[in-house]
Amino acid sequence: MVSTLVAQAPEATVLSDELRAAIDREIARFPEPRGALLAALRLVQDELGCIAPPTARAVAEIFGLHPAEVLEVLSFYNLFHTEPQGRHEVRVCTNLACSLRGARTLLRELEEHLGIRAGQTTPDGRVTLGHEECLGACGYAPMLRIGDRYHEELDGPAARALVDGLP
Amino acid sequence: MPTITVDGRRLEVPEGSTLLQALDELGLLMNGVDVPHYCWHPKLSVDGSCRLCQVEIEGVPKLQIACDTPVADGMVVHTTSERVQRAREGVMELLLVNHPLDCPICDQAGECKLQDYAVDYGLDHARTREPRRPGRKRVELGPTIVFDEERCILCRRCVRFCREVPETGELVVENRGDRSRITTFPGTPLDNPYSMNVADVCPVGALTTRDFRFKVRVWDLDEVPGLCTGCSKGCNVHVGVARGAVQRYTPRRNDQVNETWICDEGRLSYREIGAPDRITRPAVRDAEGRMQPVSIARAIERAAERIRAAVLREGPAVVAALASPHATNEDLTELRRLLDGIGTATSGAAVVEGEPDGLLLQAERAGNARGARDLGFGDPGLVFEKIRGGGVRVLLVMGRDLLAEPFLGGTDPLASLDAVILLDTHRSALEQVADVVIPGRMLAEKGGSMTNHAGLVQRVPAALEPAFDAHAEGAVLARLRAALELVLPARSEGAA
Ligand code: SF4
Ligand code: SF4
Ligand code: FES
What we know:
heterodimer, A: alpha+beta, Arc Repressor Mutant, subunit A, Glutaredoxin, 4 strands, B: alpha+beta, Ubiquitin-like (UB roll), Rossmann fold, seven-stranded mixed beta sheet, five-stranded mixed beta sheet, 13 helices, 22 strands, binds iron/sulfur cluster
């Protein structure tokens, strides 16, 4: 059915020209523009640190999607964030293999050491702590990642030292 | 057309359809061939997510979902085999793993597919000891709909409805796995002119309309076929009656008219039936100019006196009528007979127009605008002209639509008439200029037929009796004609 009932116009954040151009380059690589949505969201998060609702709206407009559809994609992947994150993202894998090798204790120790709960950011904005699903490093469990880097075969002291060493 | 065999029955099915579609088109689905299903809906795209519709197809090792399996010539399907039963039981058990089982306080209870299929295929006990997933019990998704997260089985019918029918797309599933839930984007609530249909497509009690929530248990409702009279589309509805009042309209499927939908405005228009501003008793104006309640017989007699006097003095042409586009074809036929009997042709119908929405809602905001036209009650312009020019002495008015712009805009032009005879359902300024007021009935109170914008004539029965002294317009007009014929013997019976 063709209807005249269109979604209401939103206020949206403005994305930089460079970001816009990078997204357009991604779109050009796909037969269907919305195929580039995931790539575009990565670019946006890399630049802005997170994708808050107004940003999601701006992306939806570029793709001609309802912002709720962008939310659907954002919330499906836990690598996307809708709230600002700390300078360093520390994520402990708590999937089966790592948990069997003490990952949950490790995460608890880091919580105590940093004085925050998983999912929170230190007050100085230095570290966001969280857990993660399997990162494919089961043979080196327990492990965590800091940003894009893996750190494997950890124990409490090693993990604390790693976190303390972050600028 | 391919031929398939379902449970030993040979069926000719439409090429290119899926099994469920084919069964639906043949009118067999859940009506001879039971293939229970949640996510599939005849008017929405295929989702294939609930897995309840699995059937056995000979030559295919695994069970297949009937909603997404295209028919093929010679296909042999079993829907009642042991394997199919076991699959349904398995699916039901999983769907119920996190269900709160709060049927006693759930509005859907009694018309809930989860209840129905749990009775047919469910276990009578839970095998899980883990706590059930808690969820929010009262989420206001928008101004019309309340969401209960615990009851949702994530069939995504509501999501697909918003995307595919009003094309507004407010609803999505966020997160994934056992954290999946229906939600809206911040600042963009579920708010479109068809929003309440999501409560109908929801097979469980997760989506309920604010309007009907906790109002009445559905097993106390008498559901009578009816029509929405909000516009000339003539959407088919179930009129839900309990405690002597209409409690709700829900869409009644008619693939020729409204498929399975109705607009929100039409859905809520049932409120007009029980509105506090109904005209509840016949009345006539006394010598001091005050309205006095009288019996219906006396009101009709007075109307006849007025018409008779005017005709004897100035001839039949000074009698005019404005027909209601909300009246039934039967009412309007009686009006036509009456006018023919009197010998006047000055008549028309004022039809209020608005913007059509491209889906169901039509420009003409009256259920029988087309029927009125077909019966010769067209543009009322000439009647208004004649009133303004002083050529009308007695005006028979059905309905208050003429008060709206661009018609009379008010009652002033009527003040100089000898008499205004008003037949209407709701109070309006017309009562101030009327000499006789006769309370009419809404369609649900009298039944009858209406002709929709496309010329389809649809007849429905009465759903309830009004609690006050209201009369079907057609019956009143027939009595008025009878009263007049006593003194107008020269007039022949008008053409039917
Ligand atoms: S709210 Fe109802 S229609 Fe929507 S996904 Fe849940 S069960 Fe299905
Ligand atoms: S589209 Fe018209 S007939 Fe259908 S429900 Fe709405 S107002 Fe009623
Ligand atoms: S109806 Fe077929 S999978 Fe849901």
